[in-house]
Specification:
The structure is a single chain. It is built from 14 helices and 19 strands. It has about 450 residues and is of the alpha+beta class. The protein folds into three domains: about 80 residues, Uridine Diphospho-n-acetylenolpyruvylglucosamine Reductase, domain 2, CATH 3.30.43; about 110 residues, Uridine Diphospho-n-acetylenolpyruvylglucosamine Reductase, domain 3 (2-Layer Sandwich); about 210 residues, Vanillyl-alcohol Oxidase, Chain A, domain 3 (3-Layer(aba) Sandwich). The strands form four sheets. Strands 12, 13, 14, 15, 16, 17, 18 and 19 form an eight-stranded antiparallel beta sheet that branches. Strands 7-8-11-9-10 form a five-stranded antiparallel beta sheet. Helix 8 packs antiparallel against helix 11 and helix 11 runs antiparallel to helix 12. This is FAD/FMN-containing dehydrogenase. Belongs to the oxygen-dependent FAD-linked oxidoreductase family. InterPro entries: FAD-bd_PCMH (IPR016166), FAD-bd_PCMH-like_sf (IPR036318), FAD-bd_PCMH_sub1 (IPR016167), FAD-bd_PCMH_sub2 (IPR016169), FAD-linked_Oxidoreductase (IPR050416), Oxid_FAD_bind_N (IPR006094), Oxy_OxRdtase_FAD_BS (IPR006093).
Amino acid sequence: MTTLSPLGAATGDLARQVTGTVLVPGDPALADGTAAFNTAWPVRPIAVVAAADEADVAAAVRWAAARRLPVAVQATGHGLVAPVEDAVLVTTSRLSHVRVDPVSRTARVGAGVRWAQVIEAAAPHGLAPLNGSTSHVGVAGYTLGGGLGLMARRYGFAADHVRRLRLVTADGAIREVDATTDPELFWAVRGGKGDFGIVTEIEFGLVPVTTLYGGGVYFPGQAAAEVLHAYRQWVETLPEDTTTSVGLLRLPPDPALPEPLRGRFVVHLRYAHLGSAEEGAALLAPMRSAAPRLIDSVGEMPYTAVDSIYMDPTDPMPCHDRGTALSALPAEAVDRLLAVAGPGADVPVAMVDIRHMGGALARPAAVPNAVAGRDAAFSVYALGVLLGPAAGAVPAAVGAVIDAVAPWSSGSLINFLGPADRERVRSLWPEADLARLLAAKRRVDPYGIFTTGHSIG
């Protein structure tokens, strides 16, 4: 006979308070309830509440807060950056409603919605959201961390376009938060991420975009130096309507990949231009001639096809990642990156991603928010897969990439930070902004139950 602990027995009371599902250790469905995109981190909660609605989220938070238990939240599973242990995990994937208002050019979505759903719902109205490199990612975590997307230089961060939030705070209250009802909390949540409660619904602006001139250009890895040096100079000539990045990719011998890319080290230029095909082609011409091309897929495309620009993987895997933001990308920085992650480096780094920032990203939002990293000129992000005999070498190799560009570091974007302790998370903001964030945190979460993931305290 199994004897339940007092806490284990109490989960029966939790189950009676929600209409969704409560899973506990030993439940056969627990693995599905805790599944995340990055499988490197252990997820061993005391209980999982698969919320059926906003009221379930509030009930789960009240139950946990009464016992001073930490609360973690998961929507699509892409935001995991640390272990989840001895916590109540609230999953919001069932909060999946999407409502588009074509007159106000806004969308209202539940916390479990992925960007693909918003793209599909907005497209018939000639509108598009400010999603990132893959529509497989959830709206909530991406947006609360800022959201650096495919049209970022023209429209800024996704968080800049948030109009309203519904948020469950540590007291279990459901709050409507906007610039009028609670301006300080509204400021903090948009950029401070999940420290202040569980967002159950977001309303945000859409943009009038139906097509763009975009895609990817793949170059052979041995041309990495030519491509990266050309890239750092080329981006200085681009208008705000053009958002780009370049990646150093060590690709697996996957039959699903195009034959020229399988098992190769390649350089991948990603390009998204809001303008005519003629203008887009003219702007891209210098990079098309920078080196021989393996694949060139850039052309006019419907916005619904934007996943083809990055071609990000969608299958879960164990990863280690880190990121930083740069004030500049001089020739020396490129050379140092190539020394530790270029074609001559035998390292288990699957990707180094360099994103060009500036433009609207550098300007304050119409309603100011706590998004960090606005002054950055570039974002650099490195990732390694923790599989195979080289898995143990991945963290050091990824760290070496970030260390290589440390002389030009200007903080980081929280969504690209990777695993980080509290001190490093706090370092993202200037002293005055951090003080505002901490004041908001103390007000709505005085006992610190929302401290999993990227937490300021």
